[in-house]
Design goal:
Largest sheet: 5 strands, antiparallel
Number of helices: 2
Radius of gyration: 11 Å
Order of helices and strands: EHEEEHE
Shape: globular
Structural class: alpha+beta
Distance between the termini: 14 Å
Strand order of the largest sheet: 4-3-2-1-5
């Protein structure tokens, strides 16, 4: 699934980026393949607010659509 489909409270593992541009944008937020993140709030038609290492980050919906994630289990 992609990050934009995630539900509030889910803990997820980043598994793939759509392309190199998306990868570079995500790396600016400290998120790369293999990163463990938690969805704090997925705002309908808006950003996805995630946390990683006690830092909250708002990821724009267009970027979130291009980040593939999976359940951390």
């Amino acid at each position: 699934m992609n990050l934009a489909d995630a539900k509030d409270g889910q803990e997820l593992l980043v598994v793939e980026m759509a392309n190199d541009t998306v990868n570079k944008q995500a790396l600016r937020f400290g998120i790369g393949k293999g990163s463990l993140i938690k969805v704090q709030k997925n705002i309908h038609k808006g950003p996805v607010i995630i946390s990683r290492n006690q830092l909250e980050i708002a990821i724009g919906r267009e970027l979130a659509l291009q980040i593939k994630v999976s359940s951390k289990e």
